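Postdoc handover notes: sequence design on the structure in folder B. Input tokens:
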């Protein structure tokens, strides 16, 4: 298993999968993501995501009536992660990305948000982000395979 290399002072974008893996203690990714959360707690890095992450992460807990999990997501996404609003600028950038890379709409919004926020690292488990120019991504499954 490889290790996640997160430079100090990084601004790290986490997509919805990373949030879900962390909150729900996904056995395949929990240990890999520990350096991310340790550096955040030590104030060595900042973590950013789109407001879209809030919506995407709440769907299953709300569907299942799991108020504890719903509250856990809301707490993490309001207290520890800086959520970037979905603005017209981001939507226009997302449209351009979708037109040139064939990303799905949510993924295009995530990529456009990360680029707009000048993130130095984009954590995901979706290889589709490989096609986004100037996006410094890390695909978690590839790190695990090292």
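Designed sequence:
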């Amino acid at each position: 298993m490889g290790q996640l290399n997160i430079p100090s002072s990084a601004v790290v974008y986490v997509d919805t999968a990373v949030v879900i893996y962390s909150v729900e203690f996904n056995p395949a990714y929990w240990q890999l993501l520990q350096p991310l959360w340790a550096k955040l707690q030590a104030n060595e890095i900042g973590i950013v995501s789109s407001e879209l992450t809030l919506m995407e992460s709440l769907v299953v807990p709300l569907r299942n009536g799991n108020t504890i999990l719903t509250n856990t997501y809301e707490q993490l996404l309001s207290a520890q992660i800086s959520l970037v609003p979905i603005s017209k600028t981001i939507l226009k950038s997302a449209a351009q990305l979708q037109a040139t890379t064939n990303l799905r709409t949510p993924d295009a919004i995530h990529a456009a948000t990360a680029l707009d926020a000048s993130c130095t690292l984009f954590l995901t488990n979706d290889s589709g982000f490989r096609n986004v120019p100037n996006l410094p991504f890390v695909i978690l499954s590839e790190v695990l395979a090292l």
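Context for whoever picks this up: The chain has one domain: 11-145. Don't rerun without checking with the PI first.
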